[in-house]
Amino acid sequence: MRSICLGLGFVSSSLISQAAPAAAQRIENGVAVFAALDKVTAKISRLEVKLNETATFGALKVTPRVCYSRPPTEQPKTSTFIEVDEIQLDGKQNRVFSGWMFAESPALNPLEHAVFDIWLTDCAAPLRPGVAEKGTPTRPKGSTGAGQAGTSPSWAPITSQPEAPPEDFRRRRPR
Q1: What confidence tens digit (pLDDT) does each residue in 39-66 have?
Q2: SS3 per residue for the chain
């Protein structure tokens, strides 16, 4: 078995070959959380809206269609697709916004209205079983986390020490 020098330590080449490629998990949530500003009263309100349901803020009707986030172990990326309609004085509705909003970049694509501003702040209520609030993975009830018989879970600490470097190993400077 070969050892490879990586930075400050040595890693067995068999460990490197067994490593899975990193893939960001997307968590689907059931609730989109918005901050809404009424420019007349200078009041900021928190709106928690279930997907495909409509919440009213002033003359606006906000309907989120999807809300995605990532687990806390990943780089934050929270996004939602929403539709916003304005109720006119004559009772008709006019679509004033339809698109994606991003919590980490609120100025990228917010709803800017003459009287109201709305931007995404978070997603809540994960829809996938086994995922707790804020996207933290959980174990099923009765599970010890040991995995299947004879295997160790991917999150288990490595208990063996890496191999020592070969005798003829020398650091060489690149030319």
Answers
A1: 999 999 999 999 999 999 999 999 999 9
A2: CCEEEECCEEEEHHHHHHCCCCCCCCEEEEEEEEEEEECCCCEEEEEEEECCCCEEECCEEEEEEEEEECCCCCCCCCEEEEEEEEECCCCCEEEEEEEEEECCCCCCCCEECCCEEEEEEEEEEECCCCECHHHCECCCCCCCCCCCCCCCCCCCCCCCCCCCCCCCCCCCCCC
